[in-house]
Amino acid sequence: MSNLFLIIVAAGKIGGVAGPLPYDMDECQRRRAEMADAVVEAWKKPEVVAKLKADDPAITVDAYRFECRHLAEKPALGSEYVP
Asked: Which of 1, 8, 30 is nearest to 75 (CA)?
């Protein structure tokens, strides 16, 4: 049996996981899009960019992804993300 998870990917690693989620894939996709939009907006703020670049100078807004996936087990934080 699989469960639905919303996975936050940062620079190819799993940086956050929500789930198993109580709603369906359509709702997950809507929330995923909202989160992606929020990241794009945050990257427009110089203070946010400065903090993120201080932690990792090579990081860009494109390093962040949000995925809705049906999985048997909750992914481990910090593990490599395999689409």
From this structure: 8
Query: Please, where are the H alpha helices in 1-83?
Result: 25-42, 46-55
For the chain, the domains span 3-70
Burial of 55 (0-12, 13-18, 19+ CB in 10 A): exposed
Residues constituting the chain: 83
- Reading the chain (83 residues) residue by residue, the pLDDT tens digits are 789 999 999 888 999 999 999 999 999 999 999 999 999 999 999 998 898 889 888 888 888 999 999 999 999 999 999 88
pTM: 0.84
